[in-house]
Every structure is written in structure tokens, then in C-alpha cells.
């Protein structure tokens, strides 16, 4: 006999019921007990989606198979006020059989209750009539049990109406020696219609709490649904994704079956998830069966994520007590995590419910949350988070909140989020003044991550701006962006216009704008470069306010660029940093300018300290761009100190910050970091790595006319020189110098391009032009006065001069660099001085210089290998070097005695060694991973330096020297 036709579909038989073996066994035992006339009642309880209904359906199937009459009912919140609603569900399909001879009028109260027809005396449900009805239904139940074993199944017991609960308790107490099994299902956490009656029922029932699926259960379920044994990683991934919830696990596996996805490692890495909206609607439907209030609470927690009950109650329009009661029910149902945290038990539930809430409803919830938080004076970032999620016009209070929160985020180092808030504020109804203010703030925030969009907004906000101080601040920011983007003509136009606009109002700003224009716009007009830094009142730029520090930074940068007045440069740089590095974090160009100025004055220890502070602060606040610049400048400081491994590490950290900030390849920060990496790698001999780093920018020939690409020219020139391409190196260094001079950056402290160009000319045999460049650089370096800059220039003059005449230049460089932090530069000077002394026969002095050079090289992580150039001195055995050959008249330039084995570069000496081993040009090119043309170029230089004409003469020219292969 089928107790409910609607249950015939039986979607989940006990064959596919996983993880419920113990429960099914207990149900079987209950049926066996009932067949022996020993009635029993079992109450199954668990969270929503745990599988109570599926278990009860399986129990119904088992009961029918054993010949039980199955009577099933599902309680509902809608019917909990209807007397005997559950009793009617259980027996209503049997009422024709139960009424004696179809005489419904003569039927007892029990039959009328089941049939849904009540007499006048029953309709009023006075206590005596209710009791009569309970006894009548009990007698009917007992009568049915005497005819055949009876299985009574009630799902969602918590919503059972009170009269039905009273009957059920009466039945459990009275039934004895009858073949009756009572199976009940209850959602944990939900407050029952009558807690006392349910508690009484629990006393006389066996309570079984249903748990989540285990790893073994998930594997079994997967095999049953997909027909394949899952791999271990997939089982673990599915268990973690579903938290062992049978409902969600089954949905995922069903989707996999529909899409023919195997339960393997690949599926574990890309686990299919149910459609969030569909799953969310399913969960909300289950909650709605309990109460509408539970649905509203779940929606608000999913969408608004309230931090406390107060906000939750306000948005749901409940009092705090009612909201707390609903939260407790959701916790008990397993939907929310316990302990009142207002978070879902699993993220999949949160995402699913949020997806099921319409966009319009979500906006309304966020608008209500924002308004309540504003009225209760909550922190502006918390209010702004909700305002951002709604497009509703909220009024001036929302604008003020968004602006305040944006300022906080930008100050704390999150300009992207700050820009989102400002953009949302622009959607409100605004006055012209409010809009201009917000647009300017938005442009300043965008300058950190989207400079070209920032330009548009800053120019829009600048129009009709009356406050001269603010105009000056905005123009400084805008000119910085235009400078870094290479838009020099536009920057020139804006700076000229601003000078005319605010000059009469702030006369002191005219000279400052003139200086800013000089630093921003390249010009070949000498008059444009003529700015007397001493015209600025020192009290003005040392007063410590933002404008004073900005002016001090400009003075320091210009002094360092031009290589004039080192004491003024140092003093101005320190004034710019007087309030600490954190005060200049919002101005990237000025930050780099000031720190570079201190590098040029040899204050490297101070630069390191500032960079450490900047990197730490930028990392703490999440300022990726500033973090990038801090690492890049610190890499340059390490490079000048000779700490090349640390320089490479910092450059790599800078590039990592560039990726984190999602900067385009041609962004100045990215290019600046690559330049630092390339130069440090070259010193360490990682030529191929340096070349790969350079190629990351996608440019190998023409570079844009911007400052950052100009310094990259210098690094590329060094790489080409190392590769043996002296002509390419010379072209890069000369173009670099031409660009720098157009900015008025003639100082060799900026980039010693003249020294590098001089060495390239020397390599090409152009000795006199090389000497002219070297002497010009030395003159400029002496005018600047920093030991490192002068020492480098003296080294170049010594190398180009050569012979005995080099000693005086190198000796002076040695004395100066002992006061400098540039250890590797000092090592190079000592090595060249050792060569000069050795050639003059001063072997003891040469040995002392070489020993000190090697010691400094070890400190810098660079191996000084005298075996390539001074093998005799390295072993302490005096050796005569081959007689130098000179192809130029001595009356023009003194002959160069180092035009022999001692003048070979490491790469040239390695090529020569491979030739002596009998390798062909093609074999050498293959071993060194270069082109045949490069090897031929190296051999040409080797022949010229050694004064030989063919390969067979190399052995004699290199006699006594140990080749390095």
C-alpha cells in the first residue's frame, strides 16, 4: 500500500545513499523490531542539506519492500497554525477506507480529523474535543497496525502543528505490542512550534544526529555517480570545497557527469562548481520552508557582511532580539558558523546566497547599511564600502564620506581603491566646485597607477581653479606625469600658462616654476638652462613646510644635474628630506631626484638609510610604485658602493614590485629598474642575463626620447662594449650625452657618458678624440668636487693616456678614492696603476697595488683575475711584457705600451686561449654562445693589440701567460 503517490519518484535509493550505513542499519533494526510487535521511534536531526529527507525516502522504500503501510507527512510553517495538519497528511489518502461503510457523518472524531471535516463541537477546539480527536486518531492508527505493519514518517518535525504533536506524543506513550515504526526528521537549530512538546517527544525517541561526509564517503559517492574510482587529490579537493555537505557534493558530481569530466588530478585543480545562483536559490528555498525571516537574515549576512547584530537588525528592520534568534537558528542549521560571528559555515554557501540575490536588491541593502552606519558615526572606510556597492543617489553625506575614506586609503598606500571611491563620489549630484575638487583628487590618485588617465583628470580639474597654492601643487604633479611620459611640449605649455596665471598672486612661485620647467622640458637654448640657484632665499626652502621642501628638492636636483655647488646640493637635499622620507612618498619624481642628488654627492650611507625607510614604509602601506623606486635607488647605491650582488637583488625586487603594480613595460619605474639590473649584472660578468633583461623592454634599437630611456641608452652602451661592439657602444653613449645636455644635465655625476665614449673611441683607435672627451669629463668632475666622480674621470684619462704618463692621473685617483665609498672603482684604479708600475719595472709597488685591488674586488664579489693580464706579477715571478706596438706617431699621442697581452679584455683573452687550443671560429662561437661575426671582431682587436697579423703568431705573443678557458 502506497501512502503518498508524490513520493514514488524516489530519486535517491538506499543503493546510492552514501555515508549513512549506520543509520540504515538502525532503521532496519527498527523494522525488525516492529515486525516482532515491538514499536520504536527514531528522530534524525541535522543541518540543512545534510540529507535527512533523502534518508527518510530511503527508509520509506525499505518499509514498502518489507510490506509496511507507509504514511508520510512533511510539516510546513504555513500549516503550523492548522490543527492536525500533519495528521491529515499522514492519513488523508486512507480516509475512504477508514470511514465505516462510507458513513462520514457517523464517523468518530478521529475520522473527521483525518478527512478534514469537523463538526461544530470540534471546530472550536476546546480541550475536551481536542482530546477526543487525539484518541480517535490513535484508535485508527492502532487499527491500521493490527491489519499490517505501519511506518509513520514525518519530515521537518519542528514545524508540526501543536495538536499533531500532542497526538504523536500520545501515540508514543500508549502504543505497545504493535508493529509500528515512527521515523522523524528535524532540522537542527530551528525553534519548534512547541519546544516543550518536541522535547517530550525526544525523551521517548532515539535521537540520531547526521554528520557530514568523510573522505571515504566522498570517494564512494564519486564512484557511484561517475562510475570511476576517484584519484586521492580529487577526493580531498571535493571534500574541502563542499565541507562534506552531501547536497553540494552531489550537485558537483552531477555536473561532472553531464560534462564527462573524470575525477582526476586535473579536475582537482579546476574543480567544477555548481551555478552559484541556482545553488543559492535552492538554499534560500530550504530556508524559506522554515521562515521568511531566516531568508532575509541570510541575504543580509551574505550581501552586507554586517560586523555586528546592530547593523544586521537595522538592515532587516528587526529588533536585536529577533535578529539574534534568527542567527541562532541559522547556526543550529549549520548555515552560519557558530559563536555568533555572522559568517557562513562555508564560503560556497555565502557565494551561492549572494548570487541568488538580485542586483537591485543588493544595492538597496548596501544603501540601507551605509545610511545606518553614517547615522551611528561609523568609520568612513566602513561606510564607503557600502556606498561603493550602490548606485543610489545618497546625498552630500555620501560624498563627504567617500572623499574622507579615499584620502585615508591614498595616504595608507592604496591609491587604486581610493580612486574607486572618488569615481563613485562623482556619480552623486554635485556642484561645480565639488566636482572640480573630486576630479583633482582622482587625478592625483591615478598618477600612481594610470598616469595618462590622471593627466586628463588633472587638466580637467585645473581649468577654472582659482586657489593659486592649489594650482601650483596640481601643476607640479601634472608636469611630473608629463615629464615621465615624454610629453615635454605639453608640459612646457602648462608651466608657461601657470607662471602667467599665478605669478602676480605668488611672486615667489615664478622662480620655482622656472626651475621646474628647466628640470622638466629639454631645451638646447642655453638661456633656458640659466637659473641662478642662489637667487632662492635659503630661509624659504629650509622652512620645512610642503612648498619649502618641494623647492628644496628642485634645487638639489638641479644642482646635481648641472654639477654645480655640491655643498648647496647636499644642503638642499637634506632640507627636502627634513620631515623624513615618508613625507615625500607622494611625489615619486622628487623622491628619485633627491636621492640621486645624494648619490652624486657621495652620501651613499645616507641614501641607504633613506631607502630602507622608504622601502619599509612603502611595503607596509602597499605603495608598489614607491617600493619599486626605493629598491631601484638602493640598487644604484649598492652599485656605487661596489655591492653588486645586493644591487642585482634590489633591482629584481624593484621589477617584482613593478609586476605587482601592473605597470606597463615602458613605465619609467619599470625602465629605471631594468637599467639598474643591467649595469649590476654586467659588472658581475652576467652578460647574457643583462642582455635578456634589456630585451624584456622589447626595444633593441631606437629608444624613446624620455629620461628613463635616456639612462637606458647608457646601460645599453655598456652592454654593447662588453659584447665587443665598440661602434654601437659609442653611438649609444654619444646619444645619451646629447639628450642629457638638452636637459642641462651636463654633470658626469649624472651619467659618466664621456668616460664610456672615450673608452669606446680608444677601442676604435681614435685616441685623440678619446683623450678630448676624458679631459672634458675631468674638468667637469673637478668643478663638482665629489671624489667618486673625479676618481672615475682620472681613471679614464689615465687609461686613454697610457704609458708612464698615466701614473700621475692614476695616483691622484687612488688618493681621492680612498675618501670615496666606491670600492670597485678604486679597485679598477689600483689595477691600472699596478699595470703602469709593472711596465716601469716597479714590481714591488705593482704587487702591492694588485693585492689591494684583489682585496677590494673580493669585498665587491668580483674576482680580479691578474692571470689574464699580469700572470707574472700574480705569481711573484717578474716577466717582461712584449714590446708594445704603436700605429700612431708619438708627436700626436704618446705611444701606448699596454697595446699587448696586458690590454686584452677578459673576453678577448678567452677567445685567444680557445684559438691556441686549436678551435675554429665557428667552434669558439658555439662554445661562447655568440655569433661568428663577434668572434671575428674580437680577433681583429686581439691582432691589433698584440701587433700580430695571423693566428699562428698568437702563441709567441701570449708566451708565458696561462689561458683561461
UniProtKB/TrEMBL annotation:
InterPro entries: AAA_16 (IPR041664), P-loop_NTPase (IPR027417), Sig_transdc_resp-reg_C-effctor (IPR016032), TPR-like_helical_dom_sf (IPR011990), Tscrpt_reg_LuxR_C (IPR000792), WH-like_DNA-bd_sf (IPR036388). One of its GO terms (cellular component) is cytoplasm. Pfam families: AAA_16, GerE. GO terms for biological process: regulation of DNA-templated transcription. Keywords: ATP-binding, Nucleotide-binding. CDD domains: LuxR_C_like. Residues 897-962 form the HTH luxR-type domain. GO terms for molecular function: adenylate cyclase activity; ATP binding; DNA binding. Residues 878-899 are annotated as: Disordered. This is Regulatory protein, luxR family. It comes from Lentzea xinjiangensis.
Amino acid at each position: 500500500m502506497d501512502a503518498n503517490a508524490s513520493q514514488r519518484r524516489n530519486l535517491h535509493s538506499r543503493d546510492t545513499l552514501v555515508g549513512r550505513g549506520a543509520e540504515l542499519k538502525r532503521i532496519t533494526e527498527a523494522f525488525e523490531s516492529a515486525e516482532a510487535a515491538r514499536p520504536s521511534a527514531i528522530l534524525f536531526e541535522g543541518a540543512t542539506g545534510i540529507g535527512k529527507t533523502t534518508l527518510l525516502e530511503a527508509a520509506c522504500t525499505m518499509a514498502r519492500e518489507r510490506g509496511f503501510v507507509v504514511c508520510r507527512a512533511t510539516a510546513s510553517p504555513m500549516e503550523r497554525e492548522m490543527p492536525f495538519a500533519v495528521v491529515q497528511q499522514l492519513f488523508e489518502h486512507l480516509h475512504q477506507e477508514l470511514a465505516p461503510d462510507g458513513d462520514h457523518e457517523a464517523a468518530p472524531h478521529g475520522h473527521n480529523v483525518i478527512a478534514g471535516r469537523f463538526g461544530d463541537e470540534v471546530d472550536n477546539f476546546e480541550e475536551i474535543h481536542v482530546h477526543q480527536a487525539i484518541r480517535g486518531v490513535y484508535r485508527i492508527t492502532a487499527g491500521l497496525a493490527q491489519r499490517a505493519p505501519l511506518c509513520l514518517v514525518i519530515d521537518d518535525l519542528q514545524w508540526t502543528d501543536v495538536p499533531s504533536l500532542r497526538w504523536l506524543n500520545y501515540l508514543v506513550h500508549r502504543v505497545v505490542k504493535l508493529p509500528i515504526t515512527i521515523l522523524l526528521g528535524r532540522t537542527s537549530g530551528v525553534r519548534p512550534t512547541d519546544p516543550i512538546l518536541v522535547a517530550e517527544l525526544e525523551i521517548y525517541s532515539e535521537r540520531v544526529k547526521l554528520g557530514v561526509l568523510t573522505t571515504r564517503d566522498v570517494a564512494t559517492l564519486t564512484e557511484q555517480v561517475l562510475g570511476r574510482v576517484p584519484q586521492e587529490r580529487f577526493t580531498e579537493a571535493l571534500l574541502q570545497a563542499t565541507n562534506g555537505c552531501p547536497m553540494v557534493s552531489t550537485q558537483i558530481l552531477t555536473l561532472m557527469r553531464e560534462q564527462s569530466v573524470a575525477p582526476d588530478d586535473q579536475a582537482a585543480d579546476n574543480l567544477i562548481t555548481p551555478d552559484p545562483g541556482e545553488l543559492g536559490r535552492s538554499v534560500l528555498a530550504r530556508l524559506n520552508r522554515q521562515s521568511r525571516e531566516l531568508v532575509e537574515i541570510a541575504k543580509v549576512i551574505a550581501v552586507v557582511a554586517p560586523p555586528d547584530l546592530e547593523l544586521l537588525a537595522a538592515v532587516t528592520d528587526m529588533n536585536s532580539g529577533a535578529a539574534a534568534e534568527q542567527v541562532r537558528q541559522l547556526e543550529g542549521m549549520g548555515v552560519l558558523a557558530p559563536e555568533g560571528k555572522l559568517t557562513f559555515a562555508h564560503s560556497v554557501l555565502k557565494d551561492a546566497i549572494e548570487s541568488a540575490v538580485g542586483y537591485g536588491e543588493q544595492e538597496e541593502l548596501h544603501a540601507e547599511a551605509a545610511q545606518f552606519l553614517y547615522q551611528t558615526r561609523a568609520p568612513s572606510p566602513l561606510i564607503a564600502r557600502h556606498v561603493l556597492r550602490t548606485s543610489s543617489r545618497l546625498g552630500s553625506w555620501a560624498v563627504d564620506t567617500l572623499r574622507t575614506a579615499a584620502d585615508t586609503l591614498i595616504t595608507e598606500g592604496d591609491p587604486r581603491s581610493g580612486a574607486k571611491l572618488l569615481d563613485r563620489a562623482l556619480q552623486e549630484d554635485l556642484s561645480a566646485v565639488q566636482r572640480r575638487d573630486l576630479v583633482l583628487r582622482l587625478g592625483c590618485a591615478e598618477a600612481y597607477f594610470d598616469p595618462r588617465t590622471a593627466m586628463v583628470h588633472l587638466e580637467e580639474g585645473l581649468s577654472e581653479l582659482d586657489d593659486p597654492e592649489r594650482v601650483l601643487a596640481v601643476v607640479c604633479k601634472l608636469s611630473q606625469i608629463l615629464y615621465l611620459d615624454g610629453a615635454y611640449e605639453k608640459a612646457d605649455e602648462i608651466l608657461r600658462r601657470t607662471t602667467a596665471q599665478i605669478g602676480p598672486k605668488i611672486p615667489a612661485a615664478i622662480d620655482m616654476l622656472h626651475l621646474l620647467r628647466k628640470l622638466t622640458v629639454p631645451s638646447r637654448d642655453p638661456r633656458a638652462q640659466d637659473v641662478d640657484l642662489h637667487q632662492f632665499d635659503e630661509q624659504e626652502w629650509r622652512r620645512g613646510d610642503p612648498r619649502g621642501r618641494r623647492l628644496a628638492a628642485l634645487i638639489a636636483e638641479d644642482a646635481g644635474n648641472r654639477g654645480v655647488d655640491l655643498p648647496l646640493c647636499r644642503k638642499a637635499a637634506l632640507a627636502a628630506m627634513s620631515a623624513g622620507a615618508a613625507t615625500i612618498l607622494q611625489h615619486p619624481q622628487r623622491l628619485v631626484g633627491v636621492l640621486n642628488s645624494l648619490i652624486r654627492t657621495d652620501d651613499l650611507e645616507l641614501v641607504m638609510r633613506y631607502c630602507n625607510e622608504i622601502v619599509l614604509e612603502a611595503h607596509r602601506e602597499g605603495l608598489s610604485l614607491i617600493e619599486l623606486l626605493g629598491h631601484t635607488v638602493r640598487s644604484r647605491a649598492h652599485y656605487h658602493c661596489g655591492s653588486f650582488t645586493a644591487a642585482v637583488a634590489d633591482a629584481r625586487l624593484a621589477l617584482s614590485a613593478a609586476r605587482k603594480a601592473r605597470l606597463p613595460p615602458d613605465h619609467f619605474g619599470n625602465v629605471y629598474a631594468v637599467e639598474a639590473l643591467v649595469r649590476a649584472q654586467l659588472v658581475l660578468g652576467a652578460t647574457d642575463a643583462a642582455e635578456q633583461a634589456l630585451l624584456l623592454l622589447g626595444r633593441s634599437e631606437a629608444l624613446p626620447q624620455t629620461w628613463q630611456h635616456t639612462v637606458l641608452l647608457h646601460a645599453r652602451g655598456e652592454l654593447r662594449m662588453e659584447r665587443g661592439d665598440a661602434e654601437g657602444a659609442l653611438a649609444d653613449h654619444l646619444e645619451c650625452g646629447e639628450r642629457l645636455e638638452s636637459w642641462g644635465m651636463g654633470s658626469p655625476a649624472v651619467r659618466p657618458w664621456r668616460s664610456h665614449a672615450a673608452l669606446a673611441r680608444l677601442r676604435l683607435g681614435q685616441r685623440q678624440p678619446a683623450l678630448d672627451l676624458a679631459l672634458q669629463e675631468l674638468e667637469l668632475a673637478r668643478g663638482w668636487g665629489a671624489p667618486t666622480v673625479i676618481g672615475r674621470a682620472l681613471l679614464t684619462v689615465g687609461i686613454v693616456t697610457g704609458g708612464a704618463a698615466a701614473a700621475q692621473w692614476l695616483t691622484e685617483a687612488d688618493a681621492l678614492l680612498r675618501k670615496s665609498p666606491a670600492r670597485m672603482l678604486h679597485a679598477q684604479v689600483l689595477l691600472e696603476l699596478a699595470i703602469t708600475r709593472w711596465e716601469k719595472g716597479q714590481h714591488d709597488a705593482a704587487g702591492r697595488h694588485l693585492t689591494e685591488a684583489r682585496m677590494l674586488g673580493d669585498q665587491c664579489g668580483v674576482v680580479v683575475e691578474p692571470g689574464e693580464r699580469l700572470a707574472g706579477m700574480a705569481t711573484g715571478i717578474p716577466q717582461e711584457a712584449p714590446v708594445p706596438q704603436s700605429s700612431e706617431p708619438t708627436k700626436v699621442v704618446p705611444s701606448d705600451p699596454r697595446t699587448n697581452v696586458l690590454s686584452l679584455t677578459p673576453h678577448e683573452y678567452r677567445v685567444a686561449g680557445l684559438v691556441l687550443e686549436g678551435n675554429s671560429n665557428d667552434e669558439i662561437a658555439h662554445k661562447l654562445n655568440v655569433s661568428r661575426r663577434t668572434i671575428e671582431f674580437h680577433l681583429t682587436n686581439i691582432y691589433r693589440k698584440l701587433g700580430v697579423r695571423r693566428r699562428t703568431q698568437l702563441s709567441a705573443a701570449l708566451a708565458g701567460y696561462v689561458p683561461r678557458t
